[in-house]
């Protein structure tokens, strides 16, 4: 009997790929048209309106170029992003990006679930008179909301990929309507000129470089999920332009309204508090009612469909014997547990910003190494059949490409050091600088022949 290959990888053949351009576009605009994007918009309001817009355009555009590149890698190979990482980190070494992906997407699922559960607490208040989260006794509504959201996520997983596509198609329409509705309400009460000229209180100001890092962490998180979806496309254009345009439109639309609405609340109340920038609080203050809360809940379901899929793929890459569906169920349960952390320990804002620091620190070097390896070192040519072969070209030294691993650690350390440099904090942020430095070093080292032998003896 032939021994089962514990490192096996599934590559989707071209004839089995049926995801259309619209499906891909809807997936990525839906991924960003969510509560977390809105909340990030409220956080970068600390740069002022124009500073926040500038940071949003720069960080998002650069990040989603990488999304398009990784999307193309998925189209060419037919495998998930974490399976692709085996070519640059080694079959065993890919556990590093997989573990990072698992933790960060479990985290993002928890972030969106928490914000949606806050909306659920408002809905429960309207229906049953329960206390809203943030008020005495409000934890009950939040906890019930978390459990309801987790139940919805489980239903979407059990229903399969087709049901997720239907939810996303409906969700994108409701999201667009909601953003227009929210914009009308915001600019009805406060003029655009007032919002554009609002001055951030001195004690609340955020440096431009810090805003770049915040947004880079937020946007790069999607990059390592890119191939998980584009492997189902049969056209290069669908795998590149659809994610780039969809993700950018989603982040611009929702972060813009989060930014504008947060400044609007600061102008009318006289207080800027990023803790109050979540969509549920703002929608409640603007008097949008239960329909707005339901749309916020729906956007969480559509965004988390992507988050859970990416986390499940990472877990599946780490433990090939676990089926993808079972992996999805496991990460949903893990996400539910993580969602409860801000309930009992500290504020949601503190937990969220700490999470973004972690994401920005660990993701940049991984993305840089993967893109340089595929496009510059291997000239867009990987061999999917060998991604699970312990005797093939991606085994390196004992299954680990030590150069990639060492440079990843170097990138993390460099990120921490650069965040203490005033110029970096004020102007550029550390994330993209680290990606450039690590990418150049990796390319140079590989070209000079400093990597280990590709084939195991």
Question: If you had to describe this structure to a student in words, what would you say it looks like?
Answer:
The structure is a single chain. The protein has helices at 21-32, 35-43, 49-77, 81-84, 86-89, 95-128, 139-159, 161-189, 192-196, 208-223, 226-230, 236-269, 279-285, 289-318, 324-339, 341-344, 348-377, 402-418, 422-428, 431-447. It is an all-alpha fold. The protein has one domain (16-348): Orthogonal Bundle (Hydantoin permease), CATH 1.10.4160.10. Helix 3 packs parallel to helix 10 (208-223), helix 3 packs antiparallel against helix 12 and helix 18 (402-418) runs antiparallel to helix 20 (431-447). The longest helix has 34 residues, at 95-128. The relative contact order is 0.19. InterPro entries: CodB, Pur-cyt_permease, Pur-cyt_permease_Fcy2/21/22. It is a multi-pass membrane protein. It comes from Pediococcus claussenii (strain ATCC BAA-344 / DSM 14800 / JCM 18046 / KCTC 3811 / LMG 21948 / P06).
Number of strands: 0
Query: What is the number of helices?
Result: 20
Shape, per Cα inertia axes: globular
Distance between the termini: 24 Å
CATH superfamily descriptor: Hydantoin permease
CATH topology-level name: Hydantoin permease
CATH architecture label name: Orthogonal Bundle
Pfam family, one: Transp_cyt_pur
Organism: Pediococcus claussenii (strain ATCC BAA-344 / DSM 14800 / JCM 18046 / KCTC 3811 / LMG 21948 / P06)
InterPro entries: CodB, Pur-cyt_permease, Pur-cyt_permease_Fcy2/21/22
Subcellular location: Membrane
């Amino acid at each position: 009997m032939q021994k089962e290959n514990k490192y096996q990888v599934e590559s989707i053949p071209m004839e089995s790929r049926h995801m259309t351009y619209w499906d891909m576009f809807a997936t990525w605009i839906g991924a960003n048209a969510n509560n977390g994007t809105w909340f990030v918009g409220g956080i970068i309001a600390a740069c002022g309106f124009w500073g926040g817009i500038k940071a949003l355009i720069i960080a998002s555009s650069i990040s989603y170029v990488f999304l398009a590149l990784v999307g193309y890698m998925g189209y060419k190979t037919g495998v998930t992003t974490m399976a692709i990482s085996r070519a640059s980190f080694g079959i065993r070494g890919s556990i590093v990006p997989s573990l990072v992906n698992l933790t960060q997407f479990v985290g993002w699922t928890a972030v969106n679930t928490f914000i949606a559960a806050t909306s659920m607490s408002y809905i429960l208040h309207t229906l049953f008179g329960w206390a809203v989260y943030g008020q005495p006794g409000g934890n009950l509504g939040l906890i019930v909301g978390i459990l309801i959201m987790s139940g919805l996520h489980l239903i979407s997983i059990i229903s399969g990929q087709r049901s997720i596509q239907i939810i996303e198609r409906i969700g994108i329409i409701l999201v667009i309507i909601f953003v227009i509705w929210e914009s009308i309400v915001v600019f009805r009460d406060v003029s655009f000129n007032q919002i554009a000229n609002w001055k951030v209180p001195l004690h609340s100001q955020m440096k431009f470089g810090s805003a770049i890092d915040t947004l880079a962490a937020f946007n790069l998180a999607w990059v390592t999920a890119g191939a998980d979806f584009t492997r189902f496309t049969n056209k290069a254009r669908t795998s590149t332009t659809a994610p780039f345009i969809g993700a950018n439109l989603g982040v611009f639309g929702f972060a813009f309204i989060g930014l504008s609405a947060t400044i609007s609340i600061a102008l009318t109340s006289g207080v800027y508090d990023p803790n109050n920038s979540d969509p549920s609080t703002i929608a409640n203050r603007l008097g949008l009612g239960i329909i707005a809360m339901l749309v916020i809940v729906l956007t969480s379901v559509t965004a988390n469909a992507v988050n859970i899929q990416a986390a499940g793929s990472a877990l599946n890459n780490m433990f090939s014997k676990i089926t993808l569906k079972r992996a999805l169920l496991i990460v949903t349960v893990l996400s539910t547990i993580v969602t409860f952390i801000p309930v009992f320990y500290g504020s949601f804002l503190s937990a969220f910003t700490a999470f973004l620091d972690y994401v920005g620190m660990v993701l940049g070097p991984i993305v840089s190494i993967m893109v340089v390896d595929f496009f510059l070192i291997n000239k867009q040519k990987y061999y999917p059949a060998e991604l699970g072969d312990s005797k093939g070209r991606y085994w390196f030294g004992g299954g680990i490409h030590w150069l990639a691993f060492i440079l990843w650690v170097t990138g993390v350390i460099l990120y921490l050091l650069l965040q203490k440099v005033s110029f970096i904090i004020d102007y550029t942020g550390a994330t993209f600088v680290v990606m450039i430095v690590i990418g150049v070093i990796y390319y140079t080292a590989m070209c000079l022949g400093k990597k280990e032998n590709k084939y195991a003896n």
